[in-house]
Amino acid sequence: MSENKRTVASPSSASVSSTASRYRRSSLQKTPVPRGGIAMARNTKDAAASPKPVKESGNVQDDKLVEMINTTIVDRSPSVQWDDVAGLDGAKQALLEMVILPAKRRDLFTGLRRPARGLLLFGPPGNGKTMLAKAVASESQATFFNVSASSLTSKWVGEAEKLVKTLFQVAISRQPSVIFMDEIDSIMSTRSISENEASRRLKSEFLIQFDGVTSNPDDLVIVIGATNKPQELDDAVLRRLVKRIYVPLPDSKVRTLLFKTKLKSQPHSLSSSDIGKIVRETEGYSGSDLQALCEEAAMMPIRELGADILTIQANKVRPLRYDDFRKSMAVIRPSLSKSKWEELERWNSEFGSN
């Protein structure tokens, strides 16, 4: 009996063994191992299980960069007109010749009359440099790019240079264009050996795209930079910013115009002699300082109301007086020291266009 069992068991195991071997052969034929052996197959399997992010390349990457640049275009008008900018006649004339007139009459501004491609607005902070750029965006028919350091920098190595290149390509495709770089010294400061390599490459790409061998002089793309530290700009950047307009502290005429403009919408009892006194006493104030002074003076009648502020009618509040401005001058002081003012004056006499 035991022998019969052994006899029956033996052919059964052989049959199973042969069936298994045939199955293994057929499975190997259907799923061949890729070149590189089992190690590559394991790597492929691991990659499928836990995929790593792959950096975009080609057209997809280009579209992404173009979209990033398109976000810097000021599509909506900032609603700042020329008349809103008091004084600064030299800067207005330069912008008129460089941006507004060539955009409207391109046929006249050719050859030697071709407008300069670079303009630098420099001077103490708070005197209307950025407001001039807003007025250009409103008055001109050009595409206006508002570029800052954050829009040209990237965590990816090499992407900052591509962004600069894409910026100029988009500006050329949408010309006439204006590229405005506020606080340009934060991006285009003097190159040094110790600075970051990515920063050096960004500056080099900007210089190449602005006025390199690939640039076309017939393209109407204007670069406007604004800074209160022109002495920190790279020499190559200064060479490309041909016109350098000094935006100084407001003189007595401009201060008078500013005060009259601010007081138009505010009830006051100031005479012409009172305004003249305020103008003389605010020597050294910037435009933003004068704005803050007017706002502080306007609060003086409100502070006198005390508990009545909740019940009094708006037309019952007393008008502004000269004393309100006198008290406000003790709170709002000039923001620019005389040494910095003199330094900018010296730089203007050496490098400025006016």
Question: Could you please describe the fold and organization of this structure?
Answer:
The protein is of the alpha/beta class. It has three domains: 2-49; 59-246, 3-Layer(aba) Sandwich (Rossmann fold), CATH 3.40.50.300; 252-335, Orthogonal Bundle (Helicase, Ruva Protein, domain 3). Helices cover 51% and strands 8% of the residues. It has 14 helices and five strands. It has helices at 2-30, 37-49, 59-70, 89-104, 129-139, 149-152, 159-173, 197-211, 235-240, 252-262, 272-281, 287-303, 322-329, 338-351; strands spanning 118-122, 143-147, 177-182, 221-227, 243-246. The protein has a five-stranded parallel sheet with strand order 2-3-4-1-5, with helices on both faces. Helix 7 (159-173) packs parallel to helix 8 (197-211), helix 10 crosses helix 11 and helix 12 (287-303) packs across helix 13 (322-329). The longest helix is centred in the first third of the chain and has 29 residues, at 2-30. The radius of gyration is 35 Å and the shape is elongated. Residues 1-20 and 23-61 have low confidence and may be disordered. InterPro entries: AAA+_ATPase (IPR003593), AAA_lid_3 (IPR041569), ATPase_AAA_core (IPR003959), ATPase_AAA_CS (IPR003960), MT-severing_AAA_ATPase (IPR050304), P-loop_NTPase (IPR027417), Spast_Vps4_C (IPR015415). Belongs to the AAA ATPase family. Keywords: ATP-binding, Isomerase, Membrane, Microtubule, Nucleotide-binding. Residues 1-62 are annotated as: Disordered. Pfam families: AAA, AAA_lid_3, Vps4_C.
